[in-house]
Backbone:
């Protein structure tokens, strides 16, 4: 139970069943080596002799094995120089390293005052084994980030060296074909409520067992490494989820707003292009209109002449005949055709076309 249910599903460090006889006969597929060198730039947690100081120690966890370093007293750049290794049965797991400030030592510490004082979390580093190349040594200074009431604060940096070496390439490839969890998790799945209940019980058992080791590991340290309070309600987490949801639905809201603007004629360019009816353009006052012999009217075009009453075409000789006049630049028009006035023509024809004002 403690191997699977003590951590959240996203940061689990062991996928083996609780019964050791179910997996002890399988050899490990690799080896993970961790070197904790030093930390530097740590934030001052207390004042000693008029200057800031910190009493830091590290806790590393992988699978069911825990490791705690000695506390380096009165140093903002402690040197640990510790090395540990663990056997790996599934590389889809996480190695966790946490740095704490020991509040139990000193004149005002919990051991001297007798008051229960919790150790302060300085930062946490998680390393996914699936992202590591086989046989390569990774040496980095990882930032230590801690969440406070005023926001996120950088508490310092931790220098680590990590190497994942594969002992069986065939066994490493076979892990991709095996299920992620033990078979009982698929045959008899547990509800979320039952999983959280098992997690709390597992954390209580581990904290009770590790509290008796030398040096002891306090309960708040176990809760931080196992993420025992990860499913509790948080205002910060709720706001982050809300903003992520709004960002994901932003294109849908934009399309809905665009559609509403078209329906209410707030966007005339898109509304006219989508087949909306156009308004009829009124004929300006003083424009000549041609009239056919059957009574159909239309706007008369004028080329280079005066508008209004002075723009008069020449008389039509017949229904489909030629339109002629004294000027040689006469035009030929049929029924319903547009009549044009020659430039400079001012003589009133015998049969003038009515003008609509």
Residues:
């Amino acid at each position: 139970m403690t191997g699977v249910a003590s951590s959240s599903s996203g940061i689990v460090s062991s996928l083996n069943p609780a019964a050791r006889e179910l997996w002890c006969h399988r050899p490990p597929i690799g080896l993970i080596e961790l070197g904790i060198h030093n930390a530097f730039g740590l934030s001052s947690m207390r004042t000693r002799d008029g200057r800031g100081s910190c009493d830091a120690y590290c806790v590393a966890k992988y699978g069911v094995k825990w490791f705690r370093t000695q506390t380096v007293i009165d140093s903002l750049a402690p040197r640990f120089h510790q090395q540990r290794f663990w056997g790996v049965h599934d590389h889809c797991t996480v190695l966790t390293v946490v740095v704490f400030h020991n509040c139990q030592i000193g004149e005002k510490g919990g051991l001297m005052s007798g008051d229960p004082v919790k150790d302060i979390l300085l930062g946490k580093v998680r390393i996914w084994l699936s992202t590591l190349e086989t046989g390569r040594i990774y040496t980095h200074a990882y930032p230590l980030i801690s969440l406070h009431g005023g926001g996120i604060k950088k508490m310092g940096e931790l220098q680590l060296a990590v190497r994942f070496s594969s002992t069986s390439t065939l066994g490493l490839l076979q892990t991709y074909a095996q299920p992620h969890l033990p078979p009982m998790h698929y045959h008899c799945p547990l509800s979320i409520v039952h999983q959280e209940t098992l997690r709390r019980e597992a954390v209580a058992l581990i904290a009770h067992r590790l509290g008796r080791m030398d040096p002891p590991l306090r309960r708040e340290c176990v809760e931080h490494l196992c993420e025992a309070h990860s499913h509790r309600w948080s205002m910060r987490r709720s706001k982050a989820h809300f903003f992520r949801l709004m960002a994901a639905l932003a294109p849908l809201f934009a399309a809905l707003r665009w559609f509403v603007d078209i329906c209410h004629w707030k966007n005339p360019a898109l509304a006219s292009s989508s087949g909306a009816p156009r308004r009829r353009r009124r004929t300006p006052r003083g424009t000549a209109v041609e009239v056919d012999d059957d009574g159909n009217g239309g706007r008369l075009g004028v080329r280079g002449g005066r508008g209004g009453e002075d723009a008069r075409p020449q008389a039509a000789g017949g229904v489909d005949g030629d339109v002629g006049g004294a000027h040689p630049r006469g035009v030929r028009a049929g029924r319903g055709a547009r009549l044009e006035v020659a430039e400079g023509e001012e003589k009133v024809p015998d049969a003038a076309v009515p003008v609509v004002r």
Residues 238-273 form one domain. The chain has three domains: 13-188, 238-273, 281-357.
